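Newbie here. two chains, one complex. Structure please?
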Amino acid sequence: DTGVSQNPRHKITKRGQNVTFRCDPISEHNRLYWYRQTLGQGPEFLTYFQNEAQLEKSRLLSDRFSAERPKGSFSTLEIQRTEQGDSAMYLCASSLARRLAAFVKETQYFGPGTRLLVL
Amino acid sequence: AQSVTQLDSQVPVFEEAPVELRCNYSSSVSVYLFWYVQYPNQGLQLLLKYLSGSTLVKGINGFEAEFNKSQTSFHLRKPSVHISDTAEYFCAVSDSVDSSYKLIFGSGTRLLVRP
C-alpha cells in the first residue's frame, strides 16, 4: 500500500492558462474523490468516480473544470482558462466501496494535494 | 443540506494539558462522523470515525471523541497533548443515505501546543 499520490505537488500558472493535475489512488480502491481546499477553510467536495464512471459533480465544478478516470485507475482534473479564484489546494482521496460491507471499508484516504497558484 | 460547525478557529494549549476541540453538525438523518488531522503541507489523515455502536470512539495518537445525538455534537478530546499534536483538525460528516459517501467538512480548528 503506497498510499494516494498526486502530481504535481505545486503549480504556478498565469490567468487564462490550462492546468491538469493527476491523482493515483490506492491500487485496489474503486472510488476516487476530488476536493478543493481554500486557505483557512475545510475541503469542499468537487466530484467522485466509482471505477471509471463519474457519478456526481458539485455545483462548485464549473464548466471550466473537467475530471476523468479513463481506466478506473488514475484520475486527472483539468481546469481551463484558469482564474485567480481557482487558487487552492486540490485534494484527491480514494476508498474501497463494497456492497455487502458498504461502509466498513469506506474510509477515504487522502493524497498530499496539489497546491495551485494562479497569478 | 448538511453542515459542520467548528466553533473554535484556533485553540492554544500548553504541553501535557488536556484539550477539547468542538464540532457540531446539522442533520435530521443518520450520519457518519469523522475527525481528520492535517499537518503543514500534507494531506488529511484519519484520526477516528463514528459509524454506529458505542458513542465513545477511540482513535490514533491518544485521541477520542464522543457522539452526542441529542446535541448533534462530536467533540474531540485528548487528555494530555504533545508538541507534535500541533496541526489543523477537521471534523467531517457523511450522510448515511447518500450513496456517494462524500464528506462535508467544517472549517477546521488549529491546535497550537506550546511548551
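Moderator note: The longest strand of chain B covers residues 87-95. The interface with chain A takes residues 4, 6, 32, 36, 41-46, 49, 51, 90, 92, 96, 100-108 of chain B (CB under 8 Å). Thread marked as resolved.
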